[in-house]
Amino acid sequence: MDGFITKNYYTDGGNRMVIGGILEFTEEAEIKGFPGAENMTPKTTNTAADIRGDLNTLIMNLKNAGIMIPDSWNVSVLLCPTPASMPTSETAANSGHATVSIEGNAITIALDCKISELEDTDRGGAWGEHKWLGFGIRTGLNSIVDVQFTDDTGVSTTLSSVDVDEATELGLSSGDFVLYIEAEQPEYLTGEKQFTLWADGHAKITFTMKITEPED
User: In sequence order, which ranges of the chain are alpha helices (DSSP H)?
Assistant: First the structure.
């Protein structure tokens, strides 16, 4: 028919189907692979506290399954108020050369000196010797316990009360964590370093990090 417009069509080489018309399922239709919320057993209690708890669990399961829109993150960055409590004096000194800011999902660490002028320090163990500096990530949550942190190598860590203690020792809150970075890694200058956060009821969110140096 002349002038007919197809409202339902495939794009991206067949990898994406756009529904602009009506999607109708017959009685014989089956849906496979659709995200499902975690199973919950029926409850027989009728106390207000238990009902509230069950409802909150159901809401969280729906968000985690992608059926309900997840909560938005409200992440900010800041320097640690008491950097003298950092693992080494060199790390504290390096951190004093930095200011941190965030715009969207992009974190900028602006130095008042060249990276080469930062001090090396050996934190021992798996940490090793690097030009360490640290700053705070404020998640916007009441607590960082059970928040999942994934670095750009794909290694994931579930934050715990130990991370809360580390943050509070540096003057941060229980909703913050300290991020230590190896400033000499060249990917920081090109803005290719990143990390991802995930928490119950929140979608995964990825942040990029970039270090800027003074001009010559």
Answer: 48-65, 89-95, 161-169, 187-190
Specify the pLDDT at position 25: 82
The predicted structure's pLDDT at residue 27: 79
Domain boundaries, the chain: 8-65, 76-212
pTM of this prediction? 0.78
Q: In what order do the strands lie in the sheet with 176-182?
A: 76-78, 132-138, 176-182
Amino acid identity, residue 175?
G
Among positive and negative, which fits the CA dihedral 163, 102, 187, 203? positive
Contact 159, 146 (CB under 8 A): yes
Q: Alpha helices, DSSP H only, in 88-186?
A: 89-95, 161-169
- Which of 5-19, 98-112, 139-153, 179-193 comes out lowest in average pLDDT? 5-19
User: What is the C-alpha separation between 62 and 53, in angstroms, rounded?
Assistant: 14
Q: What strand order describes the sheet that includes 106-111?
A: 98-103, 106-111, 205-212, 193-198, 148-151, 156-158
Three-state secondary structure of 169-214: HCCCCCCEEEEEEECCCCHHHHCCEEEEEECCCECCEEEEEEEECC
| pLDDT band at residue 1 using 50, 70 and 90 as cut-offs | very low
